[in-house]
Write a structure and sequence with these properties.
Chain A: It holds the Pfam family DUF5981. The complex is a heterodimer of chains A (160) and B (347). Chain A is mainly α. Chain A is built from six helices and no strands. Chain A has one domain. The chains are: A mainly alpha (160), B alpha/beta (347). The interface between A and B is medium-sized, with 30 and 38 residues.
Chain lengths: 160, 347
């Protein structure tokens, strides 16, 4: 929901902290996930992730979350799916060129990142989206990467 | 400027140490000359003569010609088609690729094709949204963004590989460019975003139309502070300018063309003039004169949509080329004439 996700951006620092506590827990539980079987838990985890992140960030389940690098503003809500910053079409009031009723996702991202402790991560160049990962759980992917059982080709250092 | 190691006038030059492309634009910029680029409005036609005619307007006044790629999300002849026609008679071109219409497979093929056809410069763009053009019902692709496009193009050139990792036998020798818009929000992020583009591979920047010198000055100061204008990986910045036809058209552009910032004072100046068209041209010359004085500016990109004939006049009046005559077919050897130039048609 648009209002929700803008509220989140205004509280990006708190969400950054929540995530930084949440990730190690998820990773520590790796033996549990492994015992249950990553393939088996993919569907339920994906549903939970989709519900939570959908409600908070309007998450589009790209499967390679970069929220903590983008001020907690999901770049997949940009009509041009830009992953590296705003285009040159941002309106004078900060709204989107394509959807004039919407605040530019990247204007929000810039605001959000400035409230965050590691907000300077917005300056890192992001890889193009790997469309094979669309619809999969980003959380599990990060756990598997740190657990060393990942088969995925996309890079990411942290859970988002 | 004439290069004494030019094999056949207009054709690819040897690549100098520290250069990446065999093109004249990179030579002019690295030699520290004020470079001028302009853009062709690609025809809605399959007529090659029309392309050559549109290029001939700039003969002797521009260092390279941009061939736009479906600008404003409207259908026209492709950029690679226009570039190929132009390089055949020797013009220096800037191939434009926007991420709106093609995925990474098509784009990488296009980079190889364009480079093989003699395009020495590539401008990597995100592209206007499809809603802005004549096919709003089209699927917006945006598989890459301008940043990842730059990175992929750079890896193709410097690491001789596709994004997949597959080897490229002969890499594209291209000078990489990108766009920036220092005039729209978030203003304080724009210099950092430019730094990100430079990190991704951008070597020259053509900006959106500048009608606000103060914003450009602030932007250039910050860009300089970020250290982007020094060293071997420095970036060359060419602010975009263009003549406005009238106050009415300025208002229309401001309301309808994404990303063009025109201050009220500019519109008021046009409105107060007796001959608005002349005033628009004068305004453009004044801007050019101010822009060339801003430290760190390497040239200008003149976008005179449907007023292409004014480009020569603007350059002549401001004297920014300082007596240089950029190469064009026929400059040194009449036999090399662009078959559609007025000189060729008269003889």
């Amino acid at each position: 929901m648009y209002r929700m996700r803008r509220w989140v951006v205004r509280h990006s620092r708190a969400f950054e902290m929540i995530y930084r506590r949440f990730e190690p827990v998820l990773v520590k539980l790796a033996p549990v996930w492994r015992r249950l079987g990553y393939e088996r838990i993919e569907a339920p985890v994906r549903s939970v992730e989709k519900a939570v992140k959908g409600a908070l960030f309007d998450c589009q389940m790209c499967g390679q979350c970069v929220l903590s690098d983008t001020g907690m503003s999901c770049p997949m809500n940009c009509p041009k799916s830009l992953r590296n910053g705003p285009c040159g079409g941002v309106r004078a009031n900060g709204h989107c060129e394509v959807k004039p009723e919407m605040m530019c996702v990247w204007v929000d991202a810039w605001e959000g990142s400035r409230r965050m402790k590691h907000g300077d991560r917005i300056h890192a160049v992001q890889l193009p989206v790997d469309y094979r990962l669309e619809g999969t759980s980003s959380w599990l992917r990060v756990v598997r990467q740190q657990d060393g059982t990942s088969s995925s080709t996309a890079k990411s250092e942290t859970t988002k | 400027m004439k290069f004494d190691d030019e094999p056949v006038p207009g054709y690819s030059l040897p690549i100098l140490p520290g250069h990446v492309s065999p093109g004249r634009l990179e030579r002019v910029l690295r030699a520290g000359k004020f470079a001028v680029t302009s853009e062709i409005d690609p025809p809605d036609s399959a007529d090659p003569a029309e392309v050559l005619k549109r290029a001939a307007i700039f003969d002797g006044y521009v260092d390279a010609i941009n061939a736009t790629d479906g600008s404003g999300a409207n259908c026209h002849m492709s950029s690679v088609g226009v570039c190929s026609l132009l390089t055949r008679v020797g013009y220096a071109t800037i191939l434009q690729i926007s991420c709106r219409d093609r995925n990474r497979i098509a784009i990488q093929g296009e980079i190889l094709g364009g480079a093989a056809m003699g395009a020495c410069n590539l401008l990597c763009l995100t592209g206007d949204g499809v809603q802005a053009g004549d096919h709003p019902q089209a699927k917006p692709v945006f598989d890459l963004d301008s940043m990842s496009l730059l990175e992929i193009a750079r890896a193709m050139r410097d690491e001789q590989r596709f994004d997949s990792g597959r080897h490229i036998a002969v890499p594209p020798r291209i000078f990489l460019g990108a766009a920036e818009n220092p005039f729209v929000p978030p203003l304080d992020w724009r210099p950092h975003r430019l730094a990100k583009k430079v990190a991704a591979g951008a070597q020259f920047i053509q900006t959106q139309y500048c009608f606000d010198i103060e914003r450009l000055r602030e932007f250039m100061l910050k860009v300089n502070d970020l250290g982007l204008l020094e060293g071997p990986d420095r970036v060359f910045i060419l602010p975009g300018i263009g003549p406005l036809a009238s106050a009415r058209s300025a208002r229309w552009i401001r309301a309808n063309v994404p990303g063009v910032h025109i201050p009220d004072a500019v519109i008021a100046r046009l409105e107060g003039a007796e001959n608005q068209k002349e005033e628009g041209k004068q305004l453009c010359m004044d801007l050019l004169n101010e822009i060339r004085e801003i430290p760190g500016v390497s040239g200008a990109h003149i976008m005179a949509y449907r007023q292409e004939h004014t480009v020569a006049e603007i350059i002549k009046a401001t004297g920014v080329l300082e007596g240089r005559v950029p190469w064009y077919p026929g400059r040194d050897d009449p036999k090399e004439l662009n078959p559609e130039s007025s000189e060729a048609l008269l003889s």
